[in-house]
Amino acid sequence: MTVLASIPSPSQGTWYLGPFPLRAYALCIIAGIVAAAWITEKRWVARGGRPGEVLDIAIWAVPFGIVGGRLYHVITTPQPYFGEGGDPIRAFAIWEGGLGIWGAIALGGVGAWIACRHRGIPLPAFGDAIAPGLLVAQAIGRLGNWFNQELFGSPTTLPWALEIDPAFRQQGYESFSTFHPTFLYELLWNLAAAAVVVWADRRFRLSHGRAFALYVALYCAGRLWIELLRIDDANRILGVRLNVFTCVVVGVLAVAYLVWQRGRPREVLDRASDGDADDTSTAAEDPADEALTSADAPDSTPARDGSHDTPGATRRDAP
Q: In this structure, are strands 20-23 and 240-241 parallel, antiparallel, or unpaired?
């Protein structure tokens, strides 16, 4: 196959520091977690949360998310581990790739719920703060697939086709050398979706889990068409990849939640500066919200404890 241009795959995905392996996949996951925590911290504090609370929640959410992601992958693709000739021990080899985002979000959400409940934080409010950070983390994590030369799409001769070494090509595609770089498609989609979530949050003052629902809906929309391009082994229902059905079901539920929660006002985290960490409440309504819909509204509406839920006061602009 002759192509005018192509994207080369990395020559290796593991480096050794003495006897210790340094794996690109793991580094990408860690970098994504750090980026998500930084973005979420800025958004959380801007929404009235306390500095440091994001890290406290991440201590619970991240391990739960990693376990959930691996469980989803193993359950939905059990053949390499429990099928004929499979190796059950490899189910624990996370560094080889294989973290299902659906399981990571589901079980990671359980970990976040435990931490939020302990600190008296509404989980939907935290979900709204973390939404764009998760998309950025997923974008960075996809670079791990590039290093592992995995989860690529069907053969193509497009100028941005991805070169795959013979050892990593799927059975039946050995004669092709370049494929759709689905890792890049999802990376770019996730970054664009993160920008949309930030814009929509500032424009419509999303709350009560709506920013998180928008993240889920946008991600599912992109993952749907990307999933249809992929040729890696996957379990199918009626000839269709399992993850396609997951995208449709989860995406529809996210849109339904957005419609159900439409029109709700922004929550105000009323956190006492010297109170207990569990002393958290949300306001059903802020009188300033209605006034600020007009261009000439005065920025003088009083709020509880002398604060305002405006971009210039309690809620500072954040990513």
A: unpaired
End-to-end Cα separation, the chain, in angstroms: 43
Of 178, 180, 61, 45, the C-alpha closest to 118 is 61
Handedness of CA 107, 113, 119, 124 (dihedral sign): positive
* SS3 state of residue 172: coil
The tens digit of pLDDT for each residue in 224-268 reads: 999 999 999 888 889 899 999 999 999 999 999 999 998 777 766
* pTM score, whole prediction: 0.82
Three-state DSSP at 21 gives strand
22, β-bridge pairs? 15
Q: How far is CA 301 from the centre of its chain?
A: 36
- Sign of the Cα torsion 290, 291, 293, 299 reads negative
Q: Helices (DSSP H) in 205-307: which residue ranges?
A: 210-229, 242-260, 287-291
Query: Are 41 and 58 spatial neighbours (Cβ–Cβ below 8 Å)?
Result: no
**Cα gap 205→255, rounded to integer Å:** 17
Cβ count within 10 A of residue 20: 7
At 154, the amino acid letter reads S
Return the closest-CA partner of residue 222 out of 238, 206, 244. Answer: 244
DSSP state letter for 241: E
DSSP 8-state symbol, 5: -
Residue 99, pLDDT above cutoff 80? yes
Residues in the chain: 319
Q: What is the per-residue burial (b if ≥16 Cβ within 10 Å, else e) of 180-215?
A: bbbbbbbbebbbebbeebbebbeeebbbbbbbbbbb
Residue 135 · residue 190 · CB < 8 Å: yes
Model confidence pLDDT, tens digit, residues 71-90: 999 988 888 898 888 889 98
Structure tokens at 23: 């794996």
253 within 8 A of 106, measured Cβ to Cβ = no
Looking up tokens 């980026």 gives: 35
